[in-house]
Amino acid sequence: MYFDFHTHNKVRRKGVFSIVNIRAGYDDLEEINGPVSFGVHPWDTTRLNSIKVIDEVTNIKDLITIGECGLDKYKSGSLSEQTELFIKHVHCSEQLHKPLIIHCVGRYNEIINLKKQINPTQPWIIHGFNGHPQLAEQLIRNGFLLSFGSAIFIGKSKARKSLIMMRDEPFFLETDDSGFAIEKLYSQVSELQFIEINHLKNKIATTFFKTFPGMEFPRSQATC
């Protein structure tokens, strides 16, 4: 079984467990079946009645993660507005016992400080991580999980360098909106980290079950 931690592709495929992201204000919940994440993207901070939208999250069927949410230095809304919305997502994550998927651009110090202040019980996962290895190490030290996407195909990308040094660390893989199949990302990681595909599949499955301990999913099926 392959695990696609974060995708905008609504088509479910046999042999792939995917978490489809629902971006508030853009995606129709009625069109999607199976595990989903839901949140107000930081790009939409000033576009939606964001706080009210998040209050409706408890009505979503098959919700297993909150987000993507977070802070983006170069997009909509001030830092204070984005932080208020992010903290609302954190409260939902804690109240519903759902992991938090984070979009972060240029605000890693702020995200790390918020985690220290809040001391959440739920996992915080940085999606689409494309930072340098030193940042990856800092995030790992502070209890974050990282999810890597298509940036690992770019020869000199920071994501690729970080992934190579994370051979012994837990992480997720995701297709996001790249158009790549998740199998291609697994193959790329297998080559970069010099590990067998089956070993990688087992490793990511183990990380998944530790992150989602209440998920009813046959472990034997997930690790095949």
TrEMBL record:
Any one Gene Ontology molecular-function term assigned to this protein's record: hydrolase activity, acting on ester bonds
Gene3D superfamilies, A to Z: Metal-dependent hydrolases
SUPFAM superfamilies: Metallo-dependent hydrolases
Classification via InterPro entries: Metal_Hydrolase, TatD-like
A Pfam family the protein falls into: TatD_DNase
Top-level taxon in the UniProt lineage: Bacteria
Name of the featured protein: TatD DNase family protein
Species whose genome carries this gene: Natronoflexus pectinivorans
